[in-house]
Amino acid sequence: MSPQNKPSLLSVLPFLVLPPLFWAGNVTVGRAVRDDIDPIALSFGRWVIALLILLPFVWRLMYRDWPLYKQNWKRIVATAIMGVAAFNTLVYIGVHSTTTTNAILLNSCIPVLIMIFGSVFYHQKLHIIQIVGLTISLAGVMCIVLAGEWSRLVHLSFNPGDLIVFLAMICWALYTLWIRDIPTTIDRRGLTGIQIIIAVAVLAPLFFWEMSHTTTTWTLNTNAVLALAYVGIFPSVIAYLAYTTAVQKVGAVRAGLSIHLMPVFGVLLSVFVLGESIHLYHVMGIVMIAIGLILSNRA
User: Fold this and answer.
1) CA triple 197-198-201, angle to 5 deg
2) Which residues span the membrane (predicted)?
3) Cβ–Cβ under 8 Å, residues 41 and 210
4) Residue 228 CB: number of other CB atoms within 10 A?
5) Which DSSP letter does residue 125 get?
6) Sign of torsion, CA 80 86 87 88?
């Protein structure tokens, strides 16, 4: 992307900020309802709700772009499976047996994975300022997650749930790179719609299999309904539309770096919604993440 064609940070800010804002609550919600809703059921229900909301607005775009879908069906199916069906399902499965802290920490691996896969498979050249920005941003994430006490790294423990979450991160890194290869002539709103349809079709047999083998007693109480509504609207419809637009505008690496904003929004939500206290390490981490993102965008 040439300097004259590169959009300003301000013009793409909403597309970079909204996804991690809504995803910040996704991991927490998935863990909070783990005793009420099975993971595949939560993922399936999430995308059914998202499809019902989005379809009335995008079906005309999908009809118009159908010839383009057929031309690019391999990329579209691959991104739908990896980034929509597999990623979210693996996260929900993983948080059944890992902590929110570990899940957020593993999320911070996504920009690193995007850089590695981009260099290996796409021969992308990394600017030194991008690497510096990534390092500073990653350090900011660690500062928040570890509460400013780096000695906690020694005591972090990992389990099979962490491996499952890490597999989800690999799926998302590949999704971010592959979505860039889908021609910009395909409207991103219609693209999101067709990806969700594919994901629902993939998840449906898994959902029915899970229902026939589950020991969980479904309790669709107020919390479960609100959880399904949240994950079906905000981290699904709005966040995916914004993220695919961000990848189109600024590229996979810069868009991927916005994932580091997740712990920032986690802190802000806990302060303003839950009334928790903000500490110096929160401020330091937020500043480091901001500096890292700005440096990377200037590369």
Assistant:
1) 90
2) 40-63, 75-95, 101-121, 128-148, 160-178, 190-209, 224-243, 255-274, 280-296
3) yes
4) 20
5) P
6) positive
User: How far apart, in whole angstroms, are the C-alpha atoms of residue 64 and residue 140?
Assistant: 44
Residue indicated by tokens 């600017």: 127
Q: Which two tokens stand for residue 94?
A: 């993983």
Q: Tokens 């919600």 map to which residue?
A: 29
- Written as one letter, the residue type at 57 is F
The residue ranges of every structural domain in the chain are 9-298
Cα–Cα distance measured from residue 27 to residue 129, given in angstroms and rounded to the nearest whole number: 31
**Cβ-contact 227, 29 below 8 angstroms:** yes
Degrees, nearest 5: CA angle 41-145-96: 20
pTM for the structure as a whole: 0.82
Going by C-alpha positions, the residue among 205, 215, 220 that lies closest to residue 89 is 205
Buried b (16+ CB within 10 A) or exposed e, 181-210: ebeeebbbbbbbbbbbbbbbebbeeebeeb
43 near 200, Cβ under 8 Å? Answer: no
pLDDT of the chain along its 299 residues, tens only? 545 456 666 778 889 889 988 988 887 788 778 778 889 999 999 999 999 999 999 999 999 999 999 999 999 999 999 999 999 999 999 988 877 767 777 777 788 888 888 888 888 777 888 788 888 888 887 787 777 777 776 776 667 888 898 899 999 999 999 998 899 899 999 999 999 999 999 999 999 999 888 776 666 777 788 889 999 999 999 999 999 998 888 888 778 878 878 878 877 776 776 566 778 887 888 888 888 877 776 65
Ranges assigned E (strand) in 130-263: none
Compute, in degrees rounded to 10, the torsion defined by CA atoms 46, 245, 272, 37: 10
**In angstroms, what is the C-alpha Rg of the chain?**
19
